[in-house]
Design brief:
Elements (H helix, E strand, L loop, with lengths): L8 H9 L5 E6 L4 H12 L3 E7 L1 H11 L7 E4 L3 H13 L5 E4 L4 H9 L12 E7 L7 E4 L9 H17 L6 E5 L10 H14 L7 E6 L1 H5 L1 H6 L12 E3 L3 H14 L3 E7 L5 E2 L7 H21 L5
Helix pairs in contact: 1-11, 4-5
C-alpha cells in the first residue's frame, strides 16, 4: 500500500468522518508553528472546531510568522502553558469542548491538569495511551497499547488498558475487535508475569469483566501477527494473524514495538489518550501532518460515539 495513493487506512478513517460534524476542541498552548498549523488544518478539514487556549499575543505572532490564517477561530487568553492546560480542561468540564488537544506544552503538563483530583477529567478507568498505526505490511489499522503512559501496569491496569482500546476500536466502526495479548512466548510460565496476566485477562473477558472484544494470549509477536506462525506452533486462535489491538506487557516493550514499526516498517502512528472523560489528542513535534490529522479523526469519531452513549460533560 502506498501512502501517496490516498487509499490508505487513515484515508478510510477520514472518509468515515465526512458524515459527522466537527467537534469543539480545546487546544492547550498552541504556541509553536507545527502545533498551531495542525489544529488549524484539522479545523479546515472539518474534523474539529479548534478553541485556541494560550497567550493570545504569542499565538497571533506564531500565526503571522508561519503565514497561518486564524480567521474566526476562538481564542482564549491565559498567561502561560500551565494556565493553558488548566483552562483547556475547564472548557471541557463546562461542556464547551468535547476533545482536548495538546499544543506545544509538555505532555506531562497537560496530563497533570487532566488527572487533577478536583478539577480534572478522570473517570473510574485507568488513563492509557494508544498508537493507531498504519503499517504498510499489515492489512488493517493496528492499535498498540500502552506505549506511552503506564510504565509497569498491574493486571487491573491492563484490564482498563484493554477495555479502553476495545472501546476505541469499536468507535472506529469495528465490531468485536480482536486483542492479542503479547508476551515472549505463547505458553503460561509462572516466571514470566506477562504470561500469567495474559491468561487472567482472557478469563476476565470470559467472565464479563472485559467486554466487547475477542481476547487471546499469551501470544508471542510472530504468533499474534502471522496465522502461519501460529499454525506451525499448533495454536488454534481466532485472533492470531488478524488482531486489531496489540496489548503489550509494559511501556518499554510497547514503545520499542511502536517505534520499530515506524522506523523499520515505515508505519504512520496517530496517538490518543483514553480513559478520561473525553478523548485527548497527544501529538509530537516529530509527527507527520498525516499522523496529526489521523489523531484528530480518531478523537472526532470517539467524541461522536460518546455523544451517542453518554450524557454531556457536566
Amino acid at each position: 500500500m502506498s501512502h501517496e495513493t490516498g487509499t490508505g487506512k487513515y484515508e478510510q478513517l477520514l472518509a468515515r468522518c465526512r458524515s459527522f460534524e466537527p467537534v469543539p476542541t480545546a487546544v492547550a498552548h498552541p504556541c509553536e508553528e507545527t502545533a498551531l498549523a495542525g489544529a488549524l488544518e484539522a479545523g479546515a478539514k472539518g474534523l474539529i472546531t479548534p478553541i485556541l487556549v494560550g497567550p493570545v499575543a504569542k499565538i497571533r505572532e506564531v500565526a503571522a510568522r508561519g503565514g497561518l490564517d486564524l480567521g474566526r477561530t476562538r481564542l482564549v487568553d491565559v498567561s502561560h502553558s500551565h494556565a493553558a492546560a488548566a483552562k483547556a480542561v475547564e472548557l471541557v468540564r463546562q461542556g464547551e469542548a468535547e476533545i482536548l488537544m495538546k499544543g506545544s506544552l509538555h505532555s506531562d503538563e497537560l496530563l497533570a491538569a487532566v488527572v487533577a483530583k478536583e478539577t480534572g477529567l478522570r473517570t473510574a478507568r485507568r488513563i492509557s495511551h494508544a498508537f493507531i498505526m498504519d503499517v504498510p505490511t499489515y492489512h488493517k489499522v493496528l492499535v498498540v497499547t500502552d506505549a506511552a503512559i503506564n510504565i509497569a501496569p498491574a493486571l487491573e491496569d491492563k484490564a482498563d488498558i484493554c477495555q479502553n482500546a476495545i472501546d476505541l476500536v469499536v468507535s472506529l466502526g469495528m465490531a468485536r475487535p480482536k486483542v492479542a495479548i503479547l508476551a515472549a512466548v505463547e505458553t503460561i510460565n509462572s516466571k514470566m508475569v506477562a504470561t500469567i496476566d495474559a491468561a487472567a485477562l482472557c478469563k476476565m473477558a470470559d467472565r464479563g469483566q472485559i467486554t466487547g472484544g475477542v481476547l487471546d494470549g499469551p501470544l508471542a509477536f510472530d504468533n499474534a501477527i502471522s496465522s502461519e506462525a501460529a499454525r506451525i506452533k499448533g495454536i488454534t486462535s481466532e485472533v492470531a494473524g488478524d488482531p486489531d489491538i496489540l496489548l503489550v506487557p509494559d511501556l518499554e516493550a510497547g514503545n520499542m514495538l511502536a517505534k520499530q514499526l515506524s522506523f523499520l516498517a515505515n508505519a504512520d502512528s496517530a496517538g490518543v489518550v483514553l480513559g478520561a472523560r473525553v478523548p485527548i489528542i497527544l501529538t509530537s513535534r516529530a509527527d507527520s501532518v498525516r499522523s496529526r490529522i489521523a489523531s484528530c479523526a480518531v478523537a472526532m469519531l470517539m467524541a461522536h460515539t460518546r455523544r451517542q452513549t453518554l450524557q454531556p460533560v457536566t
